[in-house]
Design goal:
heterodimer; A: 130 residues; alpha+beta; globular; B: 488 residues; alpha/beta; Aspartate Aminotransferase, domain 1; 3 domains; four-stranded antiparallel beta sheet; 11% strand
Chain lengths: 130, 488
């Protein structure tokens, strides 16, 4: 399982990368592995939307299940990854790179304080697997 | 696959029927309504019969083998149901006939309503909905109408346990509610603490399946229902798993306000390609006025010499029609036949044997497969299709391998709260020999998963087609084998 050290993680398997006041959100390697082959990505927000913490930003569909992706932080949508509409398999092959889902401009970085770091997330995942 | 498609069998000019010359003047279609790019297959009648007979031989059905598809209650559908449904008085009535001329049909519908009320403990039943999810939608619309009729407009939330069928949140969202998920506790029940936190005056209702999709009886069901009722919400019962409760516990007595029945699961009408379904809805007294109409009632009481006069009535505050005419009448005849053939004691025995069969099968597999929630189960149970020492094997591989042993696979990857879920529902109609044979195949596969995992990864080997490409099937939605010229 790949868990980059520079990211923050949620219990519902989203990752957040914070760069100044810009937060980029995607789903983790663990999540893509659990979902298996992703066949459809729908991003449910658009640039300019204000989104609240824990609200829906995307829906992923795999051959096994459909899963909601919620933002762990409030903000204004700067950009969404349109490419994934044509290349949903990128969520499987490059979950932390090409398969970022949305970028938000955030106001309150303290909302991220409750998230896990990489080592906490790894032990959280390994506890869930057993 | 050995059988070509019907398009590949086509030969220009071949045809099944030749019409005699018309003895009335022809009235051709307007030129702009005719299309020349519709290459329908051209075959003789014999070609068509052989093609579809060959395809039917490749099919797998409950009549050809064991079908433990969890949550679907794939019980045997007795053939007497088909006999009664084909009786001319039932089969050849027209839905617009005057009610005086279809009293037998209405009597059957009335008695089926009464029997479903007796089995479920509800005050009133509408037979209209055409399937389970349709029944859910009807039930949730009734909950909505109930709150609105009391000018209680702040109730926007529907509570859904995380083990629920996907149709529950879908139904709620379609009915305009906000879906609030409730986690399960360590025993697989609704987590009471989590439920308590979200119970407030914005709760319209809770959708509850009992036994839940783990095949477990909700041990705190009375508390759960009480908590929702205490804040003014209603409880929707998803009747998908009613087979486990028949004649033993009545959802209406437990305090559930509204529930759908799946005639095509519990009451042996065909499904899984052989439908259509039928999803009658039962309600407690306070919701009876909201049922979709028409429902059947006695218009004039009879006496010793005269049968009662049955008629169609519409409840006063009805949510409206949810189906044209009166629902799927043919399914009602089959379900009526099934209930009549069993009688009250037989109905209870269905549930007892369904639960016994599931626990027997579970006892044969326990220890070789992981169980996320290890309890005495009801009519079905959920295994984990994975082992730490066989990391490459997934639930899907086990299911595909089962096909090589000539069994239909169980339900895969549902409920979502179990890793690599394999959901197995034997039903009451299987005998011990079949259950033993299935368990033997499952144990053999567990062994293969460790000794020769590749044989699972490459399965199925003995079926007309091998492993299908599910990703391609989901992404490339090309369903026909020709493309109109203008689009080519």
């Amino acid at each position: 399982m790949n868990t980059p050290a520079n990211l923050k993680y949620t219990q519902s398997d989203e990752w957040v990368q914070l760069d100044g006041n810009i937060a980029t959100i995607g789903i983790t390697d663990y999540a893509q592995e659990q979902l298996s082959d992703i066949v459809y990505v729908e991003i449910t927000v658009a640039s300019g939307d204000d989104v609240k913490k824990n609200s829906l930003v995307a829906t992923l569909e795999s051959v096994k299940a459909a899963a909601d992706v919620n933002t762990p932080v409030s903000g204004t949508v700067l950009e969404v990854n349109e490419e994934l509409g044509n290349t949903p398999e990128a969520v499987n092959s490059d979950p932390y790179g090409k398969a970022w889902l949305v970028k938000l401009e955030i106001k309150d970085p303290s909302e991220l304080n409750s998230l896990m770091d990489a080592s906490a997330y790894e032990s959280y995942c390994s506890n869930r697997s057993h | 696959m050995s059988e070509p498609t019907i398009y590949e069998l086509s030969s220009p000019g071949r045809r099944g029927v030749r019409y005699p010359a018309s003895d009335v003047p022809l009235s051709p279609l307007p030129e702009d309504c005719l299309r020349k790019d519709l290459p329908l297959p051209e075959l003789s009648e014999l070609d068509v019969i052989r093609h579809f007979t060959n395809l039917s031989k490749l099919n797998y059905s409950i009549d050809s083998g064991y079908y433990p598809l969890g949550s679907c209650t794939m019980k045997y559908n007795p053939k007497i149901n088909e006999e009664t449904a084909r009786l001319p008085g039932f089969a050849f009535t027209h839905p617009l006939q005057p009610v005086e001329t279809v009293q037998g049909n209405l009597a059957l519908m009335f008695e089926l309503q009464e029997w479903l009320k007796e089995i479920s403990g509800f005050a009133s039943v509408s037979l209209q909905p055409a399937a389970g999810a349709h029944g859910e939608f009807t039930g949730v619309m009734i909950i909505r109408a109930y709150h609105l009729s009391r000018n209680d407009t702040k109730r926007t939330k529907m509570l859904i346990p995380d083990s629920a069928h996907g149709t529950n949140p879908a139904t709620s969202a379609m009915s305009g509610f906000e879906v609030v998920g409730i986690p399960s506790d360590a025993r697989g029940n609704v987590d009471l603490e989590a439920l308590k936190k979200v119970c407030d005056d914005q709760v319209a209702g809770l959708m509850l399946t009992n036994p839940n999709t783990l095949g477990l009886f909700e041990e705190n069901i009375l508390e759960v229902i009480q908590m929702v009722h205490n804040v003014g919400g209603l409880v929707y019962g998803d009747g998908a798993n009613l087979n486990a409760l028949l004649g033993i516990a009545r959802p209406g007595d437990l305090g559930i306000d509204v529930m759908h029945f799946n005639l095509h699961k519990t009451f042996s009408t065909p499904h899984g390609g052989g439908g259509p379904g039928s999803g009658p809805v039962g309600v407690a007294k306070h919701l009876a006025d909201f049922l979709p109409g028409p429902i059947v009632d006695i218009i004039e009481e009879g006496d010793d010499d005269t049968p009662p006069l049955y008629g169609l009535v519409t409840p006063p505050k009805t949510i409206g029609r949810v189906k044209s005419f009166y629902g799927h009448f043919g399914m009602m005849v089959r379900a009526y036949t099934y209930i009549a053939m069993h009688g009250p004691d037989g109905i209870r025995q269905i549930a007892e044997n369904a639960v016994l069969n599931a626990n027997y099968l579970l006892s044969l597999l326990r220890g070789k497969y992981h169980l996320a929630y290890d309890r005495i189960c009801m009519h079905e149970f959920v295994l984990e299709g994975r082992w730490d020492d066989a990391p490459e094997v997934h639930a899907l591989d086990i299911s595909k391998r089962l096909m090589d042993y000539n069994f239909h696979p169980p339900t895969n990857y549902f409920p979502l709260i179990v890793h690599e879920a394999l959901m197995i529902e034997p039903t009451e109609t299987e005998n011990k020999q079949t259950l033993d044979a299935f368990a033997e195949a499952m144990l053999k596969i567990a062994e293969e998963a460790h000794s020769n995992p590749q044989v699972l990864k490459d399965a199925p080997h003995n079926t007309p087609v091998g492993r299908l490409d599910e990703v391609k099937a989901a992404k490339e939605l090309v369903l026909c084998c020709w493309i109109p010229e203008k689009d080519a």
